[in-house]
Specification:
The complex is a heterodimer of chains A (275) and B (328). In chain A, a hairpin with a 2-residue loop joins strand 4 and strand 5. Chain A is α/β, with parallel strands linked by helices and 275 residues long. Chain A has ten helices and seven strands. Chain B has two domains: 22-185, Thiamin diphosphate (ThDP)-binding fold, Pyr/PP domains (Rossmann fold, 3-Layer(aba) Sandwich), CATH 3.40.50.970; 201-327, Rossmann fold, CATH 3.40.50.920. Chain B contains 13 helices and 14 strands. In chain B, helix 1 (24-38) runs parallel beside helix 8. The chains are: A alpha/beta (275), B alpha/beta (328). The A-B interface holds A 106-108, 114-119, 121-134, 136-137, 155-156, 159-160, 162-163, 166-167 and B 43, 64-65, 67, 69-70, 72, 74-88, 90, 105-106, 108-110, 113-115.
Chain lengths: 275, 328
């Protein structure tokens, strides 16, 4: 999956968004806004950057992806299905009784999910542990960890930030999905996290600031992060919550609400129409 | 009653510990060091208490497999989980109150829900922590760990048993919580003892009463049983070192043999060994039950032996409880 083809990846990101909206509508509940905001970044990882083998989910030398913001489960499920970890038909079972596609990712039920998440703030610590293990084993695989911006209000994130810097975990790459909104409102109003770049920088991280919907910039950021030695990298991905569907964009209400059938129809028209 | 005595034991690593009075945390430190020599997939994490938890010995011998996460217990649990995901066997240690309390939700979400092979080995369980007082005395940890699905909970009674527990859990896949103590405890387990997860050790099954104990309370229960036997009451002692899964077979056998079951634990009477035993017996065999433990209160500063007296955890307290209950 090492195809540095921006047009192809943009097309995949659109497919990913369409599948997310369909599965959320089918489920009748779930997190729309934060799945769409991170869709470009995660598409770039699964369709370009990461070395992984969907037919051998536990391949020892794979790069790892940890979805610390576990509520973006629909996004993870879609990229796993589209890259071949399981049948796309399973996407329809999201959040239904007996489904391996739990409301938040469960590693015991679904291949490709590295660790169960959903309770925020824990993924970066796990990523560090995996990264240390990889170094012990002399494997050059990398660990990518996606966090929400509101999620960085969790103290454990900063404990982990210190650990990664202290142990010089240059095989860790965190991505913060800076969509600016959390359930109760704008992050800046609920509890401000700015200045984000200087915080991570002060914690000893290499900081890469990008437009999280600019595919070329995303690919460059991942490539740059890989060249930085001796310290971990964090990509600050400035995004729009609900990105790709005009009437979801920037709307805090769509943090945890699924589209209605009518909204889905309108959304699909928009996505099909714009490229 | 079989008691620990110094016996020549040729099994590797056992000679130095069997029959020796020592703190269980010291036995942990020694065993971990030996394990580290034998197996290179053992990694150890601590949260700035490696001198007290005794992981420091391992750290000194294997600096490349020891990670001090600093005063950050939640992060320690997450990091240990990641190491487990990459095929290592992480032993993560700090004081019991911080390990199980501060990081409880991390243990729930990341370790237990994903059923990861993380070993949580906590020192400073119970009130015999002593002078540091309630903030550092863990009297709720067994309840907190026992309630978690996939978790195994073990409280060894002496150094020799601790050594066997640490070796056994290294060969067992899944999350395990082991509670150790700060204070020196007498050796109680006999040289021929073989620890098995989920298997209790009955020293003797009494016809009048049986005391089901864990950790330091095993030696105190043995003393209580001696006093009771001297006064004509046939009292037995069961070392229920695995609190979860509970050895219900041994428990049922003891309950059927006597008129009274007494539980003894250096823990709150809510949620710990007494609760586990009562839950099982109330649904399976009706027998009088009395719980010896901390009666829904916090600890305080003092010498360990003073605290055991203050909180009603001495042999005399057990004797009195048994005599009182048998009168009815």
């Amino acid at each position: 999956m090492d195809k540095r083809d921006t047009a192809f990846l943009k097309q995949q990101a659109k497919r990913v968004r369409i599948e997310i909206l369909k599965m959320l509508t089918e489920a009748g509940s779930g997190h729309t806004g934060g799945s769409l905001s991170a869709a470009d970044v995660v598409t770039a990882l699964y369709f370009y950057k990461m070395r992984h083998r969907p037919d051998v989910p536990n391949w020892r030398e794979r790069d790892r992806f940890i979805l610390s913001k576990g509520h973006a489960a629909p996004l993870l499920y879609v990229v796993l299905a589209l890259t071949g970890y399981f049948d796309t038909l399973l996407l329809k079972t999201l959040r239904k009784i007996g489904s391996p596609l739990q409301g938040h990712p469960c590693s015991k039920t679904l291949p490709g999910v590295e660790i169960s998440t959903g309770s925020l703030g824990q993924g970066l610590s796990v990523s560090n542990g995996i990264a240390i293990g990889l170094k012990i084993d002399n494997l050059n695989s990398r660990v990518y960890c996606l966090l929400g911006d509101g999620e960085t209000q969790e103290g454990q994130v900063w404990e982990a930030a210190m650990t990664a810097a202290h142990y010089k975990l240059d095989n860790v790459c965190a991505i913060i999905d800076l969509n600016g909104l959390q359930i109760d409102g704008p992050v800046s109003k609920v509890k401000a996290i700015e200045p984000v770049a200087s915080k991570w920088s002060a914690f000893g991280w290499n900081v890469i600031d990008i437009d999280g919907h600019d595919m070329e910039a995303i690919l460059n950021a991942f490539d740059e992060a890989e060249t930085v030695k001796g310290r971990p990298s964090v990509i600050l991905a400035h995004t729009v919550k609900g990105k790709g569907v005009s009437f979801f964009e920037g709307k805090v209400e769509y943090h945890g609400i699924a589209p209605t059938r009518d909204e889905l129809e309108m959304a699909l028209k928009e996505l099909d129409g714009n490229g | 009653m079989a008691m620990g005595e110094i016996v020549k034991d040729t099994r590797e690593g056992r000679q130095s510990i069997v029959g020796k009075s020592m703190a269980t945390r010291d036995a942990y430190g020694e065993t971990l060091l030996e394990l580290g020599k034998k197996r290179d997939n053992i990694v150890v994490l601590d949260a700035d208490l490696s001198g007290s938890t005794k992981t420091g010995k391992f750290a000194k011998a294997f600096p490349d497999r020891f990670y001090n996460i600093g005063i950050a217990e939640q992060d320690m649990i997450g990091t240990a989980s990641g190491l487990a995901l990459s095929g290592k066997i992480p032993f993560a240690s700090t004081f019991a109150v911080f390990e199980t309390g501060r990081a409880w939700e991390q243990i729930r979400q990341t370790v237990c829900y994903s059923n990861l092979n993380v070993k949580l080995i906590a020192s400073h369980g119970g009130i015999t922590v002593g002078e540091d007082g309630a903030s550092h005395q863990s009297t709720e940890d067994i309840a907190l760990m026992r309630v978690l699905p996939n978790m195994t909970v073990i409280v060894p009674s002496d150094g020799y048993e601790t050594m066997q527990v640490i070796n056994a859990i290294a060969d067992f896949y899944g999350p395990v919580y082991v509670r150790l103590g700060r204070a020196k405890v007498p050796a109680v387990m006999p040289a021929e003892y073989e620890f098995k997860i989920g298997k209790a050790y009955p020293f003797h099954i009494g016809r009048d009463a049986n005391i089901v104990a864990m950790g330091i309370m095993v030696s105190i229960a043995i003393e209580a049983a001696r006093i009771l036997n001297d006064s004509g009451i046939d009292a037995g002692v069961i070392n229920m070192s695995t609190v979860k899964p509970l050895d219900t077979g041994t428990l049922l056998n003891a309950a059927r043999s006597c008129r009274l079951i007494v539980t003894a634990e250096e823990h709150s009477i809510i949620g710990g060994l007494g609760s586990a035993v009562s839950e099982f017996l109330s649904e399976n065999f009706l027998v009088q039950v009395r719980r010896i433990g901390i009666k829904d209160s916090f600890g305080c500063s003092g010498k360990p032996e003073e605290l055991l007296k203050l909180y009603g955890l001495t042999a005399d307290d057990i004797v009195e409880t048994v005599k009182e209950a048998l009168k009815k």
